[in-house]
């Protein structure tokens, strides 16, 4: 039995759901509402001491970290196989996973926070806001959220996020420039799946053109990826009208500044 503790619009949960859908697996969802701090409930922390989503429980055993969950699913349910057969190519696939985990994930959090979640926080009472910040057990994460709340798109953490997306989409454009459909050729892998939710979030925020307007291979890749049945079943079909409306409303408000910051960053790289 597979149980996924998740939050609907969590990019990490979306990555796992796409993998589950690709393998046509039956699973039971348990919603963990991040905005009600349910991820810090003592019972959930027994499953996931980090207090994040998702957590996959398979036959009573918890598996945490979305990248590891996806690889676990591919090991246990190898049809269809979503990792390269060649050991060297598997190591290269994991470099893409690391780029996501060490750059795009935090970057998506900061950009999303500066665009829309910050607006939610403003509506809380000072006491409620302080409680939300106190509940963040990791001092580094607390510093990021505090900075992004106070400074919005001008936070240095948002600039780090813009740079992370620039690196990812630049690398993706170069990889696809030989005409291949997917990162490792004709068949997509977890490398592609890992990036999909992050590209989706920037798309739904109306921001993705800041990085992809001049990258036709990335645009074609994203058109293919977002048309996959597993993408629709694991991500786009599960977003509520309210979630889509919130992203579409708040994201464009920071687009011009994101473009300016990206241009400044790219200019610095060329000197």
Sum up the structure in keywords:
alpha+beta; about 270 residues; about 60% helix; single chain; 2 domains; Glutathione S-transferase Yfyf (Class Pi), Chain A, domain 2; globular; Glutaredoxin; about 5% strand; four-stranded mixed beta sheet
The residue ranges in which pLDDT falls below 50 over 5 or more consecutive positions are: none
Beta-strand fraction estimate: 5-15%
Q: How many domains comprise the coordinates?
A: 2
Give the fraction of residues assigned to helices: 55-70%
Q: Which CATH class of the largest domain applies here?
A: Mainly Alpha
Order of helices and strands: EHEHEEHHHHHHHHHHH
Overall pLDDT level: 92
CATH architecture label name of the largest domain: Up-down Bundle
In CATH terms, what is the fold-level topology of the largest domain? Glutathione S-transferase Yfyf (Class Pi), Chain A, domain 2
Q: Strand pairing plus helix content: what structural class? A: alpha+beta
Number of helices: 13
- Could you give the order of strands across the largest sheet? 2-1-3-4
Biggest beta sheet attributes: 4 strands, mixed
The general outline is globular
Describe what this molecule looks like in 3D.
By secondary structure, the protein is of the alpha+beta class. The chain has 2 domains: 75 residues, Glutaredoxin; 183 residues, Glutathione S-transferase Yfyf (Class Pi), Chain A, domain 2 (Up-down Bundle), CATH 1.20.1050. Helices cover 62% and strands 6% of the residues. It contains 13 helices and 4 strands. The chain has a 4-stranded mixed sheet, covered by helices on one side. β3 and β4 form a beta hairpin. α4 crosses α6 and α4 packs antiparallel against α7. The termini are far apart. The model has no long low-confidence stretch (mean pLDDT 92).
